[in-house]
Amino acid sequence: MSEAAATKGKLAIYWAASCGGCEISLLGIDTKILDVAEAFDVVFCPCIADGKVRDVEKMQDGEIDVCLFNGGIRTSEQEYMARLMRKKSKVLIAFGSCASEGCIPGLGNLHNRETIFEDSYQETASTDNPQRVRPQSVTEVDEGKLHLPVFYDTLKTLDQTVPVDYYLPGCPPESPRIWEAIEAIVAGKLPPPGAVIGEHTTVCDTCPRTRDEKKIKAFKRTWEVLPDEETCLLEQGLVCCGPATRAGCGALCPAVNSPCIGCYGPNQGVEDYGARLMSALASVIDSEDPEEIDQIIEQGIPDPVGTFYRFSLAASHLRRSKREVAAGNGPSAAAADVR
Amino acid sequence: MAEKVGVYVCHCGSNIAGKVDVEDVAKWAGENVKDVAVSRDYKFMCSSLGQKLVEDDIKEHGLTRVVVAACSPHLHEKTFRRACSNAGLNPYLMEMTNIREHCSWVHKDRAAATEKARALVSASIERVKFQEPLEPMFVDVNRATLVIGGGIAGLQATLELADAGYPVYLVERQPSIGGHMAQFDKTFPTLDCSACILTPKMSEVGQHENVTLLTYAELEEVSGSVGSFKVKIRQKARHVVFDDCTGCGICVEKCPRKVLDTEFEAGMGNRKAIYMPFPQAVPRVPVIDTESCIWFERQKCRACEKLCPTNAIDFDQQDELIDIEVGNIIMATGWEPFDTRKIPQYGYGRLANVYTSLEFERLCNAAGPTNGKIVLRDGKTEPKSVAIVHCVGSRDERHNPYCSGVCCMAALKLGHLVVEKTDAEVYSFYIDMRTNQKNYEEFYQRLLGEGMRFVRGKVAEVTDAARKPSEQGKLIVQCEDTLVGRQQRYPVDMVILMGAIEPQRDAREMGLKCGISCSMDGWYTERHPKLDPVATMTDGIFVAGTCQGPKDIPASVAQGAAAAARVSGMITKGKVMIEPIVAKIDEEGCSGCRICNNMCPYNAIEYDAEAQVSRVITALCKGCGTCVSACPAGVISGAHFSDRQIFAQIQGALWDAWQPQDAASQDAETVPVSAP
Fold first, then answer.
1. pLDDT tens for each residue of A224-237
2. Are residues A173 and A291 located together in one domain of the fold?
3. What is the ipTM of this complex?
């Protein structure tokens, strides 16, 4: 790293709609963080160091070499920060599942602002809100107007908001993969822009279980069975997302007898993770009888969106549940629907 | 580099132009769609001048992609691929847009149809830009042919090929070849003895050095593709060792169990538990019907085994699976009669002297159960009057909307036989008399002179409830004589129902095995109803005879011969081009999850246990895309149907609605937030 240290770069790490796990995983590279510090000045990282947005605003465009941006875009403030970090960074990396594909916060796209607020500020058991107070983006007080970020109906991924150079998958990205990515950045050995920095195969490739042809009569949920430790979990009826999920984790979940839930996202070149997985599982259902097939699916997969789109709903072709749009078939109405 | 797309919109005379403003579509594409270098409309794109237009533009304007908006690619994809090829453009860089079947023929509103045509053309333009040049592949054609079905169509096809010197496997489900024609007494309009003209062909097939005859056998499984099919045949257990049997018939003679013969004799006669369907059966090797054999029923008897001079009886024989390899397959699986019980008001099964036409064929056949004597069910009384009812289950929306085609002539033939053999009065109840082949009308005219009575009307009911003394003990046919305009009651002794010709019950299932489809009625779908009536959409699979639709003997024979000629041509050519539209697995990306392994309908995927990857056997792949969509990792790509091509096509179709999801498009609710 000595050469890199000579030309010390600037690194920013920002978070939007996410849980903070990505930062924890980043710190999971352990003492190698010192190497990172040797190669980069961390100029902005609200999670671990104090910093002001106005300091970033004052920077030259493109002054930051690399920005690791985790989290999806749910509020106007997050959108502003995404645009700001894009402007100030040479390389913007969607860091982790939330920024890349929406992740768990993206499941909020099954709802909208109203229903989410209703739930959070009214319906939850511990809430007492008889006046039905809701967060307002603008509140008039004696001293003037107070602003809060606008909460959007739809969570967007980072690249639905600003152009993104690279993607690092995973919820969170595994520490060794983060380190590999940093090494690649420092060594200037990045793939062509727009690429996902990761494997080009799926979890099965790293899973040691024995695999055979698949014929599934019933899907089972994890609490229903104690799976055999040697054979493919999918063959045992568990909805293991391993076949559809990008390798990179080292098959951690199957290693502890638990099916893959798909946190590493789609494999290289796959447009819609959930559609792929559904199509694959539908292919191995062992029945020709439509009624029986319906039954197998209804009994074994009670939550299809949560199963197939747990991490990727916001980035999928579906993106969100249907919204009411203005009547008419003109281009503008259709465009509104797409959003 | 941007592609240069040439767009050609066909009028197809008024077929397309009548409902779609083709000039507008061409003009619009030329002016509004990106990368379109040339856009024209033309009266008939498939004409040589139309093709030349494409060729010249490719050369002159350096087109890199071509879109032809015309009819179905089934009709003219080859034509325009060839045109591109002639001009030096890879043929797979041409895309056809079907604005005839998908647009002009199915819409009434001209403006809307034009709008749709624009969308379809736009979809093709966007798609074609991502199409990739492909090189066709060639495979050798196996010289052997499989013919399925040993009726007259199958026999003809078999003989044509065998006589040409090519090996043929003929598979027949029944114990003997011959099909329905073997059951008939006479054939119309010549009144030839059916058996006399059929049996020579049967024995020729039975003895032909190039024919491997597999009777009492059924198609189990087909894999592979044109040129090299692999077929599994289930040889059902005859319980008679084929090679040891001399066909002496002692076993049949001595068998103590007599059962009703519902197959060959159509329930009119009996056979033994060990039997040959009829005296001239080919091969002359009986089978044991295990459902009626005393040994299989209660472990007693074995008379046939004791008396067989060559010890050919084998009670332990099991079904056997035979693997064969052929280059082409001819389906000649035939038909089965309509179940006349489905029309209860005609009384079949309830009123003894109501017969199906097939029963009557056996009744007047000299080799039949009554030695050709036409008598009522009591076995002795000759009928004094006979009614023949046409269109039973045909031309009837409740059963089959189609005309079975041959029943009018068959009814005339049966009527003639009654007139010839008895003194009975014959009434023929018809809706329309259809006698439109060579010498058929003359036969009808001849019968008009023989004293048969023709009543034009659809029979309402056949009943035994007499209303007056003259109807006592008779069957009364109630029918409106539409020429007189009056309801009439015709008391007769015997009624013959001309049941419809229906597809075999398992036609669809058999078709699936070979990868060919059926029409709604259940007849196999030919490649083109007029211009390609014996080929199917699956290369190397041909159809002949009534499995493709009701037809008479001459037509079945002609189609059998035509199918054989097509196969002959393929064999003579020696090699066949197969579409390079196949699936490919990226082995680096394949994790060996094995989800695709039992998906392939053509068994074209194999798993390499050592490398832990799956592979596509290109020669077997038909490019159907099943594995492509099943692969969860997305590492199987289907040539000519890549995700990129399909998404581009969708985007093109939605040209007026699609807005790229770039970073610039924002929620309307966005409020700029100033820095804290």
1. 999 999 999 999 99
2. no
3. 0.85
